[in-house]
Amino acid sequence: MLAGGAACQPAQAAWVDTWAASVQPSWADHTLPLPKGIPDTLTDSTIRQIVRLSVGGQRIRIAVSNEYGTRPVTVGGLHVATLTDEAASIDTSTDRQVTFGGQAMTTIAPGRRVISDPIDMPVAALARLAVSLYLPNRTPLATFHWDGRQNAEVVPGNHLGDARLTEPVLLDARLLISEVIVDAPQGTSAIVALGDSITDGRGVTMNADRRWTDDLARTLAGDHVAVINAGISGARLLRDGMGVNALARLNRDVLARPNVKTVIVLLGTNDIGWPGSSFAPDEKAMTAQALIDGYRQLIERAHARGLRVVGGTIAPFEGALEGTDVHGYYAAGKDTVRQEVNAWIRNSGAFDAVADFDSVLRDPAHPTRLLPAYDVGDHLHPNDAGNAAMARALTPDIVFDR
């Protein structure tokens, strides 16, 4: 077992996040070069979303978020069930109605999230669940997670208990649900990966749970350590991107989560790449010192809560997004900043440990580029093999100081 020692199985338990998707505000498609890929609204619709847990326990709770909404969101019903061997079908014998204060319906005020009542539903580590949510009213989809790496299914009408949804519309996004929380064995802890699209999983196979955080979760499943992915594609450390900046969301996505012991930080690529590109054509170029100052703020806040902070070096991205509608993401001067920042991450001692993802992913023959075997093809995002290599780099002494 990576965490070391025998698994702890006492009678008492502790609520721990076992799955999460960091929510972000939707955007008008003309404001960014990437479309949001979801409808503006849904009415009288069932949404079914698949989540892969990290740790297991005897009861679970579901969190639903309206953090970026300007109008109340009414949830007409919520069900959770395990999957059959067929990926798109649920085992109806496990189907549970989820309640909020004893009621099947709940209304979430703008800027809020709600957490369900405990659901008596034992779940195993690495279990896959279907969470089905019904929206009876016209509902603006203002709060979502853009790159789910897992298809959500949407059908008209209330079909919460159906074993299989008929002719669904498929979306590559997470809608409204933000966490699954589990009543886990006492001593269960959590690791949070705070990052951008490389952590979010952009580039890995859809519906296959091949992010580096998924591989790490599989390694730690027997040690009662949850791995929470707090990546947002397009995220930045210092300024808002396709989501609020990491310094602003640190409380929500890391510090406020129960039983977190370690945060792995992999941010900075978009801080360097966005200025002067199609994403932020009028922004001034990022400096290494500005990023370093931001890292120091994040480290100090995490240390104040007793967390171990692992710094991930920034992977190379020469040629990033060439041939797409995004222009100007890479320049030689941007790589100079990346290398200055990486030298500080490696040598400053500010982080408790360093995960040298740059060394893992770069091409030794062309170190400003990703290794072709790890490149999904856009010269920015690692593929399945690259993500697996990143997970292997997170040794026990890096993650746990053991």
Write a brief structural summary:
With 402 residues, the protein is of the alpha+beta class. It has helices spanning 197-200, 212-220, 246-255, 269-273, 288-304, 332-347, 357-361, 384-392, 396-399; strands at residues 13-20, 24-25, 41-42, 45-52, 57-65, 73-75, 77-82, 96-97, 106-108, 113-115, 119-123, 128-135, 139-140, 143-145, 152-156, 169-171, 174-175, 177-185, 189-195, 225-231, 260-266, 308-312, 353-355, 362-363, 366-370.
Task: Give structural notes.
The protein contains nine helices and 25 strands. The protein folds into two domains: 144 residues, Jelly Rolls; 213 residues, Rossmann fold (3-Layer(aba) Sandwich), CATH 3.40.50.
List the helices and strands and how they pair.
Layout (H helix, E strand, L loop, with lengths): L12 E8 L3 E2 L15 E2 L2 E8 L4 E9 L7 E3 L1 E6 L13 E2 L8 E3 L4 E3 L3 E5 L4 E8 L3 E2 L2 E3 L6 E5 L12 E3 L2 E2 L1 E9 L3 E7 L1 H4 L11 H9 L4 E7 L14 H10 L4 E7 L2 H5 L14 H17 L3 E5 L19 H16 L5 E3 L1 H5 E2 L2 E5 L13 H9 L3 H4 L3
Parallel strand pairs: 19-20, 19-21, 21-22, 22-23
Antiparallel strand pairs: 1-18, 2-14, 3-13, 4-12, 4-15, 5-10, 5-11, 5-18, 6-9, 7-8, 7-12, 14-17, 15-16, 24-25
Helix pairs in contact: 2-8, 3-5, 5-6
